[in-house]
Amino acid sequence: MAEPVKVRRLTDQEGQRLQQIVRRGSTSTVRYRRAMMILASAGGNRVPVIAQLVQADEDTVRDVIHRFNEIGLACLDPQWAGGRPRLLSPDDEDFVIQTATTRPRRLDQPFTRWSIRKLAAYLRKVHGRVIRIGREALRMLLARRGVTFQRTKTWKESTDPARDAKLDRIEHVLEHFPDRTFAFDEFGPLGIRPTAGSCWAQRGRPDRLPATYHRTHGITYFHGCYSVGDDTLWGVNRRRKGTANTLTALKSIRAARPDGAPIYIILDNLSAHTGNKIRRWAKKNKVELCFTPTNASWANPIEAHFGPLRQFTPRQLPPPQPHRPDPRAAPLPALAPPATPTCWPPNAANAPGSAARRASAGDDDPWQQRPDHHGAPVIAADSRAVDHLTRAAMARAHSIDSACVVSTSRS
Predict the structure, then answer these.
(1) What pLDDT is attached to residue 333?
(2) Radius of gyration of the chain (CA)
(3) Alpha-carbon distance 396 to 313, whole Å?
């Protein structure tokens, strides 16, 4: 008959340590239960009694006793393995990540993107290297390596052979001649319709705009001019882009520095900006056109100002309404003049020459000089050429933070 399983005789240190663990009970559950098994066996209790005491299987109690007889108190902290042996080596994991981040077309697969199922099936049959991995293990491996399922992005680089030279020229004039540097660009198309914006309101009671069912007002393009030195933005809305409208805007920039000294205008190389008519005018009036590289319009300083302009003026506007002037309404206060006069100066070089010349721009020229009640010139727009968007911006110029379609000085 086999002898009952029991622990060997304990040393004083072992007995004191086991008694301390069992009495305090402040350790881990595994350590506490194993100490109780060993201490109960040292007290003469049989395996069935100990198993009932700790609510464990009898074979578990026997394994703990045998382990204590072999390594002592170290058996209280078992070094369990982390499951079955790894089936994938680090090289296999690197190969899985490399395959997942490679387009299937490059691997002669008849689809354009991987799914977990397709990737796992491909790894099982790849030539020269068979990797068997389940879909969930594959998903966890990709997440652990930081590979996620994302939408692809398009990108574009400038193909302009003179890209570096153009950027160097723009940086040079911005650094050395900021007071004589301007920027021009078109912003649009701007739809004449109510556009949701944002404003301060009571919680749960947002400001609402009436919807429109028939949008018959078309679109416009804001022809914006920006003075780098004065930090002033001005412009006018036009129905379309074109050489005539561009030339009109460039003349207003030339008028901002009527001293006849050279100025520099940064603009992109749109066909409406590079015509012979504009180049001849620029050469005659000492205007250097600094074109941005192809597909690099971000180099234009005015681009950063179009975002706030959209946020503070076109958005949150009500839909256009028929103009019914109220004779009882008080007149609107005049716009504050910019730091530098940005109107058309009354000289023969830049003033409109004739009605035919104005008609060639598509409409009567809206860049007109209209003095306010202080006698200072400001930019105003003819009502036939400026739509509701600009008129509403003019009406709200004194309540909108630092952004006005017609004239803005943020210095």
Answers:
(1) 55
(2) 40
(3) 9
Q: How far is CA 247 from CA 233, 251, 297, 383, in A?
A: 17, 6, 19, 21
Residues contacting 267, CB < 8 A, separation 6+: 183, 184, 185, 273, 289, 290, 291, 292, 300
Contact 64, 43 (CB under 8 A): no
Cα 312 to chain center, whole Å? Answer: 19
What does the pLDDT look like over 159-185, one tens digit per residue? 888 999 999 999 999 999 999 999 999
Q: 237 and 389 in contact (C-beta within 8 Å)?
A: yes
The closest alpha carbon to 263, from 167, 177, 168, belongs to 177
pLDDT of 311 above 70: yes
pLDDT value, residue 85: 73
Point out which residues pair with 380 in neighbouring strands. Answer: 368
Q: Mean pLDDT over residues 378-389, rounded?
A: 37
| Helices first, then strands: H and E counts in the chain | 13, 8
> For residue 261, what are the CA distances in angstroms to 92, 255, 257, 346?
69, 11, 8, 18
3-state secondary structure of 127: coil
How many CA within 13 A on the CB side of residue 84?
Answer: 2
pLDDT at 305 (0 to 100):
87
Rounded CA separation 356/359 (Å) = 5
> What does DSSP assign to residue 72?
G
Q: Which residues, in sequence order, are bridge partners of residue 369?
A: 379
> Position of tokens 């072992």?
14
Determine the length of the chain: 411
What pLDDT band is residue 198 in, cutting at 50, 70 and 90?
confident
From CA 51, how far away is CA 61, in angstroms rounded? 6
Residue type, 343: C
pTM to 2 decimal places? 0.50
Q: Which residue has the tokens 């900006």?
A: 273
Cβ pair 221, 339 in contact under 8 A = no
Contact 372, 362 (CB under 8 A): no
Cα–Cα nearest to 190, from 223, 216, 221? 221
